[in-house]
Specification:
Elements lengths: L1 H31 L7 E9 L5 E7 H23 L4 H27 L7 H26 L6 H26 L12 H6 L5 E2 L6 H6 L5 E2 L2 H21 L3 H19 L14 H20 L9 H7 L3 H19 L6 E3 L9
Antiparallel strand pairs: 1-2, 2-5, 3-4
Length: 358
């Protein structure tokens, strides 16, 4: 009887622990990451200059937090799919196909919309992912049913992907705070009501190499904390979606996480000061509204009732796999280097001998 009670309460305990971990992380991050020292992790010398100094390239906290967010999101996906006892091979194939398409899409969409070759767009990548995911899953389902005898639920995987994305970006927006991108408008230019609301809770970025400084010279000013708002809205929505999924409401979890994230993406751009393309309604905002409608249509087309209630313990045990550990480690390293190597900052390094220590 007692064991059954703990099994029933495991869902609630796990969600509560996730909430506390995220809350404490955000509390530290919102106070710390806007400062100058939290943009560059380290510098690597790669070419010696005629004056004896070395030219270097920088690895950023932007890459670090994006890598953490992606691995966190993938872990959530594995837990949710493991809770439904889904085999890992088709899931891994779906994920790899989506990553192969969406990682380049983050840069390509930013270039097409913002005309900037060294910028990433999470909004662009997520839009592409929303478009292609149902059909990639459909193709993998056909192949799995034909060759492996597997019957994969498309709506369940879409729901798990949407929850994983929502929680992943909820954490990933910490990268934007550290790099000073995706920033809000200065309070002094806002409506008096907005100034009152954010008079105590705002961001002040420091450091001339942060994007907010070199793009709009808004460093040192009180800024609407759009990134923090995204952190909180996405994370809370993702946790609610996670809980609904565990209780068997997978389609509801999909629609909740998809619509909240895309509607907030639309609304938040009215609070942002960074360049988002031409027009009062940006291309990104139009993409987010289209994604909502597309998601509703997808849920209608691929809806299936949940036959077996997810079991969280089974999902958690999925992570205790050496192969998965190596995969997640490799994924973190690749993402960190790919997104963390700064294209818009450089380093001049003076390597010399400390005579007093000889």
């Amino acid at each position: 009887m007692q064991a059954a009670f703990y099994t029933i309460m495991l869902d609630e305990i796990f969600i509560a622990c996730l909430f506390l971990a995220i809350a404490f992380t955000f509390r530290w991050a919102f106070r710390t990451l806007p400062h100058e020292g939290w943009q560059i992790i380290c510098c690597f010398p790669y070419r010696k200059l005629p004056d004896g100094n070395w030219q270097g390239w920088n690895l950023t906290w932007y890459g670090f937090f994006n890598a953490v967010a992606i691995v966190f999101g993938v872990s959530v996906l594995l837990i949710l799919m493991g809770a439904l006892s889904m085999p890992l091979i088709p899931l891994a194939l779906i994920f790899i196909l989506i990553i192969i398409i969406c990682l380049p899409a983050a840069r390509i969409t930013a270039f097409l919309i913002e005309k900037k070759p060294n910028t990433y767009s999470v909004g662009g990548a997520s839009f592409v992912g929303i478009l292609i995911a149902p059909w990639l899953i459909f193709l993998v389902r056909l192949a799995g049913n034909k060759w492996l005898g597997l019957n994969i639920s498309i709506i369940n995987i879409l729901s798990a992907l949407s929850i994983a994305y929502t929680l992943g970006e909820g954490v990933g927006r910490l990268a934007c705070i550290s790099f000073g991108c995706c920033y809000g408008k200065p309070l002094k230019e806002c409506h008096p009501l907005i100034r009152i609301i954010f008079s105590r809770h705002n961001f002040i970025f420091t450091g001339k190499t942060k994007k907010i400084a070199y793009a709009h010279a808004l460093d040192g000013q009180q800024i609407i904390p759009v990134q923090a708002m995204t952190n909180l809205i996405y994370s809370i929505t993702g946790l609610i979606g996670f809980y609904l999924f565990l209780k068997g409401f997978t389609a509801t979890a999909f629609l909740l996480t998809l619509t909240v994230t895309q509607i907030w993406r639309f609304l938040s751009e009215f609070l942002r000061a960074d360049y988002r393309g031409e027009g009062e309604i940006s291309t990104y905002q139009k993409m987010s509204l289209l994604a909502c409608l597309y998601g509703l249509l997808t849920a209608y087309i691929f809806y299936e009732p949940v036959l077996n209630k997810p079991v969280l313990l089974t999902g958690l045990l999925t992570l205790f796999n050496p192969v998965l550990f190596l995969f997640l480690t490799a994924l973190w390293i690749i993402t960190f280097i790919y997104m963390g190597k700064s294209k818009v900052t450089a380093a001049l390094i003076d390597i010399h001998v400390n005579e007093e220590n000889i």
